[in-house]
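Input chain follows. Return structure tokens only.
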Amino acid sequence: MVLIKTSSCDVVHGQLVTASNQTAKDGDAEVVITCNYSQVTSIPDGIKWDEVNENGGIINPGIVNNNKKENGRFTLHTDPARFKASLVMSHPLRNDSQRIFQCQITTRSGNIQLSNPSILTVYYLEQPLLFASGSVINEGQSVTFTCSVPDGDHIPYITWYKDGQTVNTNNPSRYEIANNNTESVLKIKSATEEDGGRYTCKAESDQFKGDDAKTSEGKNLIIIGYNVTVKKPNDTTTLKNCEEDIHITFTSEDGLATCTAEGHPKPSSVLILQEGEGVEKGENTATIEINDEICQSSLTCYAENGKLNKTMTLENCTKDITVTFTSEDGLATCTAEGHPKPSSVLILQDGEVVKKGEYKATIKIDKMCYLTCYAENEKINDTTTLENSKEGSGSSYIVPICFAMVVVVVLTVVVICLLLCKKRPSSRSGNTSGKKGNRIDDTDSVHAPVEPKADHESRNSAETNPDDEDETTKPLLENVKKLNTIEEEENSTKEQARRNCFDKKSFFNQKIDKSD
């Protein structure tokens, strides 16, 4: 034990405080470096972890201590019952490999005990890269797969897989295998249809095994077979002018690219290739889904029938856009779909943008007016008009107008009835008076009461103007007039709103025509 005397305290280098070297893998959640101080004190006055160099010089003092227990990726974890103080590092990286840490314990008497240096080693292994000499070959041809040995702390060993199953490379009649420190090469000497599938290579080391191993991206291999069997009948004849031919149709529609082959002999294999690599295979038809990435690449259809083969390139990768504009529960919703994917959807009211979305937009319908939806992608655009708007509370015009019309009809009938009833007794009274006037005699003059002059004039006035309004009919007539006025104002407002909408609609259509 060596005692170094300082001005403030005693620093002791020895094995009373111990720490061990630790290993981790790139990608682990954490690594723990433990310091044991059981031989020094049961209750330390201070705990500190430093990063030091190979000579013990401190290069990063006080990463964590009992006053600062967290610092970035580092945490101090103490276990007084076991006399341990651990440095916890989260997500160790390959760059953390060979870093050196040291634990420092301060006793209550002021002595400082240093642990032995702890070296951290972080192992790593990169994903291997896989290459193929071809992706579509004829039966009987050879093909070579090359798996690059990835960088790592230890040279990994390579295992070959087809469709998730280990390839039996110990069969020298079918395979050739060559391994070195930089790559592993698998050669299929004479391919058969059974060799078709998806190939991968897996890199493993002592630290990276099982689920921790690194697997390459897959490569598809398609084998074109010639299994044509001709059965000779007992009695044969030769067909003259039998032309061998093959015809390919390669089109795209509704997000699908379809290749169809016909001919004589009947096509036995149809392949769709993307940038020269087979992506789909069929007997006489093959179909794949298309998207932006696929349409930007080269798509080729290959067909053969055992005698001939032909290829065709997809000329037009269909680009389309569909706009749907509906209304329900007081909301107008515009949805756009297409290829390429729509990048902008706009709802315009009277020619002005009121709502914008990426592939969908929704607004509340607050009045009956001209609504248009516009959608576009990087290739084309389209518009549609909302034909039938369904407001949540019903039309603001139709219900009041209908109610007003019913009230007007009912009141009109009532007024007519009152006027007719008024006219009939007045007429009857006038005629009776006339008859009596023609038959006046002495008896009548003696017994008939004499009417006052004023009352007589009043009766004559009433008989002369039978259409005059009675006091009971005036309120009804006034109400009828008011309702007629309301109806006219509602119709005028509705007509004016429609004229404004159609004027703006014409203006908006003119703007679209000019932009086109």
